[in-house]
Specification:
This is F-box domain-containing protein. The chain is an alpha/beta fold. The protein is built from 15 helices and eleven strands. β7, α12 and β8 form a beta-alpha-beta unit. α2 crosses α4 and α7 packs across α8.
Length: 431
């Protein structure tokens, strides 16, 4: 007599399905391995130039690392690697030789910044790369140099693309201050040697930042850039950031229109003219150390700088209160190339009509962030102008602002949405 089976039909089907799936998965793995083995046989037959393969991989790595390091590039025309970016790049440099090379290239593109703790080690590393003649020149001036060893792993000067001149100057001063004996003109001598080193190894810069250095700094420390042996470093600059020069440094500002004619991205920050600070909406303090002639020279130089450009694409103005009339009137010379204009924390008081801006018919972006002093007289030329390529006009304003200006912005954007406003104690009809 047969013993009844305790296994149901459902259980049998389930066991069968599990068996089939298990063998099917195993078969797929075997098939993948077989296909990979067959495919791998073709890899050695790929005809790639030996010089092409590593450069292709390096280019891809550098592009990836650039995205990691330069995540905040849109916040400013000239930007720095922050601490997070530096940490990420240093981690990448520890993976292997190839990653190290790609990461180092990016790290040393813009070496001088506020995150380098004085930058003395940077200067020491660069000075180790000087040739015999340059070392002899500094030794004759009794400037004690670091030993040649250890020899740098890379040609660091060749990676230089972006220079913050003020941060470099501070780093050189910190390095010279640590010398056993302080020599006169040591800072100028080291600056000249390093700038020549950058020019001979990396060629012209892509971007340059020039900042206000304070009353203790004079033209001789910034005019180095205009010297015949060095000025080639800045003649091809595409990105230029000027942070409110002091009046004792205007010698270089006067020369910039003749030296830098290929600027595409121009940032002007902190240009106050004779206004040091604004204590209220109606009260300003005057800088007694400046003369009308110096103020006029600054305005004329900024106007000449804009007019000298072959193809200016972007103008970004931040926290400016002076020379606005001269700057905006000069934009008519860039009417074909200018695409983006951004005003942030700008006080337009006493600016005059924006006729120069109205001629820039190819604008794609126009922005006003927390600006003041805008009147109907100023923007009337914009109402009468046409901007067929303008994508959007952005505005974040103080107080109520000028209703007609808001109406024009809404018309340009094709909306009737009320613009964002920030409460302000000043409720004048002007913006």
């Amino acid at each position: 007599m047969d013993v009844p089976s305790t296994t149901t039909t459902t259980e049998v089907n389930s066991l069968s399905q599990n068996f089939i799936n298990k063998n099917l998965n195993a078969g797929k793995k075997m098939l993948r391995k077989k296909r990979f083995k067959e495919f791998s046989q073709f890899l050695p037959q790929l005809e790639l130039e030996p010089s092409q393969q590593p450069s292709l991989v390096s280019d891809v790595l550098e592009e990836i690392f650039s995205l990691v390091a330069e995540a905040d590039t849109h916040s400013s025309v000239y930007y720095y690697y922050d601490n997070v970016a530096l940490k990420n790049l240093h981690s990448c440099a520890l993976v292997n030789r190839q990653w190290c090379t790609s990461a180092v290239r990016i790290l040393w593109r813009r070496p001088f910044g506020p995150f380098h703790n004085g930058g003395r080690k940077l200067i020491t590393t660069y000075l180790r790369g000087l040739d015999v003649e340059e070392r002899r020149d500094l030794k004759l001036k009794r400037i004690k140099l670091p030993t040649v060893s250890p020899i740098p792993m890379f040609n660091y000067p060749s990676f230089m693309r972006h220079l913050d001149y003020g941060e470099m100057l501070y780093a050189v001063e910190a390095w010279c201050a640590a010398l056993p004996k302080r020599r006169p003109h040591a800072v100028l001598s080291v600056m000249r040697v390093l700038l020549r080193l950058f020019l001979h190894n990396s060629g012209p810069l892509s971007s340059l930042k020039l900042s206000s250095l304070g009353e203790d700094y004079h033209d001789e420390k910034v005019m180095i850039l205009a010297e015949p042996e060095i000025r080639g470093l800045i003649t091809s600059v595409r990105t230029l950031s000027l942070d409110g020069f002091d009046y004792n440094q205007h010698g270089l500002l006067v020369r910039l229109p003749d030296l830098c004619k290929n600027v595409e991205y121009l940032q002007l920050r902190g240009w106050y003219g004779n206004q040091d600070t604004e204590t209220s909406d109606t009260t300003t303090t005057t800088n007694n150390n400046t003369t009308p002639l110096q103020k006029d020279a600054a305005a004329i130089s900024l106007r000449r700088l804009i007019k000298a450009q072959k193809s200016l694409i972007t103008l970004d103005m931040i926290d400016c209160k002076a020379y606005l009339g001269h700057i905006i009137s000069a934009l008519d010379t860039q009417s074909i190339s200018l695409r983006k204009v951004k005003f942030r924390l700008v006080n337009f008081r006493d600016c005059g009509p924006w006729d120069g801006l109205a001629t820039c018919h190819r604008l794609t972006n126009l922005e006003f962030w927390l600006c003041k002093g805008i009147t109907q007289k100023m923007f009337t030329p914009l109402i009468n102008a046409t901007f067929p390529e303008l994508e959007e006009v952005k505005m974040l304003q103080y107080g109520r602002g000028c209703e007609k200006f808001k109406t024009w912005i809404n018309n340009m954007n094709g909306t009737t949405i009320k613009e964002d406003a920030v409460e302000d104690s000043d409720d004048d009809s002007d913006l």
